[in-house]
Amino acid sequence: MMSKKLFRFVFVLAIVLVPTAPVHAEQSDFSSTIQETIVYVDNNAVTTNYMMHDGDMYVPALFFKHTGAYVDWLEQEQAILFHAKEKMITVPVSKRHSNVFERAFGFWSTNNQQKQAFFFNEEIFVPLVEIAHRLEMSVRYDPIKAKTFITTHIHVPSPSIGQVNTEDKLVALTFDDGPDDIYTPQILDILKEKNAVATFFLVGEEIQAYPDMVRRIVQEGHGLGNHTWQHPNLATIWTEKVREEIKKTQQAMLEVVGRQPDLFRPPYGSLTKADLALLNEIGLRNILWSVDTLDWSGRSADEILLTVHENISKGGIILQHNFGSTEHVLDGTIEALPKIIDELREEGYTFVTVQTLLQADNRQ
Ligand SMILES: [Zn+2]
User: Residue 14's CB: how many other CB atoms inside 10 A?
Assistant: First the structure.
């Protein structure tokens, strides 16, 4: 009897101990399990960090911006808010429930959440499949290719524009990150002398610092665009923060020159589908480029000219800058500009603002 009791005791102890062992192992492995992968969102490859936990894939909450869902952090509730089309859900961190807004009834209901969202390395990781399903997206895992595919059912009407489809030999010069008081006046002097127009994608903080330069840009007939307030990488910030970056800059231009542009360019050319959806909502067209001069890296005038000649075509948009983070970095831009204008005119090109270029778009 005694031995049987002892056996039972040992057995019970074993049951208690065995499950705790792998949990400890898992926790100590946690930091080494963050990896990078590609998830296909509506067949577009999106690179993301992820973590496997209890056989499920967890991604940073901001990953969902690539699906077109707005993603926000509710500080008071310590919860992530996802908003896709008619669907709105909140996922509190480290809780076993999520809340879904029932639009038809106008109230929030609480659902059981199978997998918890959690903080890791100052980021919030959420269960990919469960959140996607709650947002009425389809998720498919292909075990042979070892790839995850998401179909979002979210359509953004106005796509980004890198070049305009036109038969006319039109081209747009664009300058980002300004205004400043070093390069902007030199660029404006050259454009005036050559009687050419350009489009300036301005940063809000620089508008505030150099309002007279913004007035001069407008008075001399150039186009304006919004390039955010503080030049963040939009893919890395919450949707409400993106909205604030854009709206604040629109407001600054309204105050300085009495009008707001309908063009936007994302810093670093980086934006998610959710950022594009937000631009659509606000009424801004997202303008990229077809010719990247890489002038910000301190390129010489000859290198800039070569890049322009190699990549220019009808309806092209040339990317340059008018704010340098270090002294003399844009000297090549200034030296190249009169030559770009003269040489492209010799080839039959006409310089127009991006606004005018868009009006020539055959697809519209
Ligand atoms: Zn920029």
Answer: 9
Our answer to whether residue 321 is catalytic in this structure is yes
CATH label, 34-151, candidates 3.30.457.10, 1.25.40.20, 3.10.129.10, 3.40.50.300? 3.30.457.10
- Identify whether 53 is a catalytic site residue: no
Q: How far is the CA of 59 from the centre of ligand 1 (A)?
A: 28
pLDDT tens digit sequence for 81-112: 999 988 899 999 999 998 988 777 788 889 88
Q: Which of 66, 72, 176, 177 is catalytic?
A: 176
Tokens standing for 356?
Answer: 């005018």
Residue 7 Cα to ligand 1 middle (Å): 71
Measured between alpha carbons, how far is 331 from 298 in angstroms, rounded to an integer? 8
pLDDT digits (tens, 9 = 90+) for 104-154: 778 888 988 889 999 998 899 999 999 999 999 999 999 999 899 999 999
Tell how far the Cα of 85 is from the centroid of ligand 1, in angstroms: 30
Helix (H, G, I), strand (E, B) or coil at 238: coil
* pTM of the predicted structure, to 2 decimals: 0.89
Catalytic residue among 66, 222, 227, 321: 321
b/e string for 44-76 if b means 16 or more Cβ within 10 A?
eebebbbbebeeebbbbbbbbbbbbbbbbbeee
Indicate the DSSP class of residue 98.
Answer: E
The residue ranges of every structural domain in the chain are 34-151, 170-359
Torsion, Cα of 175, 176, 181, 185 (10° steps): 10
Q: What is the DSSP letter of 161?
A: B
The residues that bridge with 99 in the sheet, in sequence order, are 90, 110
Distance of alpha carbon 346 from alpha carbon 342, whole angstroms: 6
The CATH architecture to which 170-359 belongs is Alpha-Beta Barrel (3.20)
Q: Tell me how far the alpha carbon of residue 231 lies from the centroid of ligand 1, in angstroms.
A: 6
- In angstroms, what is the span from residue 227 Cα to ligand 1's centroid? 7
* Alpha-carbon dihedral 85, 87, 88, 91, rounded to 10 degrees: -120
